[in-house]
Amino acid sequence: MTATVSILAEGQRRIDAPLRSALDRLDPATRHVCGYHLGFWDSDASPISGTGKGIRPALALLSAWAAGAGDEIGIPAAVACELIHNFSLLHDDVMDHDTERRHRTTAWAQFGVPAAILAGDALCSLASEVLAEAPSATKDWAVRCLTASTRRLIAGQAADLAFETQDQVSLAECLKMAADKTGALMACSASLGAVLADAPAELALGLAEFGEHLGLAFQLADDILGIWGNPERTGKPVLSDLRSRKKSVPVVYALASGTPAGDRLAVLYAQPDELNEAQLHEAAELVSEAGGKDWTEQRADEELEAALARIDSLLLPGPIAEDFTTLARQLSHRDR
Amino acid sequence: MTATVSILAEGQRRIDAPLRSALDRLDPATRHVCGYHLGFWDSDASPISGTGKGIRPALALLSAWAAGAGDEIGIPAAVACELIHNFSLLHDDVMDHDTERRHRTTAWAQFGVPAAILAGDALCSLASEVLAEAPSATKDWAVRCLTASTRRLIAGQAADLAFETQDQVSLAECLKMAADKTGALMACSASLGAVLADAPAELALGLAEFGEHLGLAFQLADDILGIWGNPERTGKPVLSDLRSRKKSVPVVYALASGTPAGDRLAVLYAQPDELNEAQLHEAAELVSEAGGKDWTEQRADEELEAALARIDSLLLPGPIAEDFTTLARQLSHRDR
């Protein structure tokens, strides 16, 4: 745990200056919105301390180290992944009408939709720019990995939006959405440093597979927290995913379970009015009763085990393997 | 004129298949929105003929030919520029609430804001991907040129949006906005083929400067058409830029002119209600009277002359210089 906190903090620390310097290339208005979103400053430009968890930068740095490369390779990879992650958050918040993220007003709610769209665009484009400047002979491959992940990220968000108006969502569709929306960029982050370091394909692919499993484990754990998480720790209202009638994995599992509890949940989800507190608690109970919680927890465990096994198979130097492992365990059982 | 029509048509023809194949990488929902926007198909997926003018692909192909390279270099450059141009159109239409483009319903008006945001994101990311796959030793430079132009494009749109609520806009600010919003990507298009072909820096820079001047000439001509253009040919309502009280170059020149006509225009622009037809015609007359039309036309001519002089200075092979020149003349005096 301490080791993980330190690798996350270490990742954040190492990318802080390069990330700020990437933003410095933007026009002042767009830079201000980007820095606000990233937690560098408040809406009046007074400095605050960043609030991102830094998962993707930590993975990218580790993947460079795993390939024997240093920060000159790890940092551009880490910065690029963090930029793409935040590009997607900025645009997702617009699309989902979310007004709060990380206990702060979202960028579009603070500066308007156009400013938030432009800020996301800027981060998306900067990500390719930063990679294309890296001192590496394989930066074209790194750009291709990153853009291919971005396509999957977009596919995942498109599916997530489609689910809102789709009557039936299969468990397979739901898992694919989660893999695209979260797994793809985690896979990229966990391998991009190695790709940029011109590592053997076996290592880069192995790290990508680790990241893909970890991403799914992470998303499934997040789906559990979205229903049963402690609001004080998650920063979201209690039962928030049920409140917005999100078709997350536990819910979709329950709806497709063919159990009486699943059928009762379907009736609740289909009613036009907002669910009241009693109904929200009933819905959570029904998801559990239909097996949605158990199944999701077990699948998260399986994905974590697959991630850990993949790391073991790569025979990385001890401390690096340990950092990957510790990070993976914490992320998939994280409590905030 | 015939030569220009043919280079534009030729550019469109050559990028048609590669552009479609780039879209084929996207998830079906996002691909559908992108292809709709690009004029490949209608909202029900029935094929239609594309409606873009193909200016940027034509410039990019010419710039590859100018460097002695062929389509294997010219096409990725042309596709990347066309993708970035359309990414910006998709997002601009969302930000500007425009419901019509090229005589068709805009993507957001047809499919909703989230779908249009995702489609723009997809095109932005695909542009880097396509360049990073080009068979070229300088593709990293090409990605950097493209992303630097994208930053300027974003800066231009941010300035354009800020002008809406800004009391005073100086002519210098307005020209910078136009250069960022239109000049940057034209400069990139006119040079990206050469950059990707590893041309001497002198050639690549010369072509970029040509494109920058041409872009400004093109934008100034567009500003004239936005007030005095024939609606049947422009596809926009008569006096459209005045109707939306856009701070285009002729208007800003007039407002800053210190003339009685300029002052009367300021009073009209400041009134809260919509301008009626008589007021719109009066506003157009005031812009002329304050010198806004003459000044803009003259500046457009100067930019065109500077563009043509820059092409001459490069001593390109005759037919290529001629294509650049013909294209430049038509674009800056174009009547639609």
From TrEMBL, chains A, B:
Superkingdom of origin organism: Bacteria
Ranges that cross the membrane: none
GO biological process entries: isoprenoid biosynthetic process
Keywords: Magnesium, Metal-binding, Transferase
GO molecular function, one term: metal ion binding
CDD domains xrefs: Trans_IPPS_HT
PROSITE patterns assigned: POLYPRENYL_SYNTHASE_1, POLYPRENYL_SYNTHASE_2
PANTHER family: (2E,6E)-FARNESYL DIPHOSPHATE SYNTHASE, GERANYLGERANYL PYROPHOSPHATE SYNTHASE
Family recorded in the similarity comment: Belongs to the FPP/GGPP synthase family.
Listed name of the protein: Dimethylallyltranstransferase
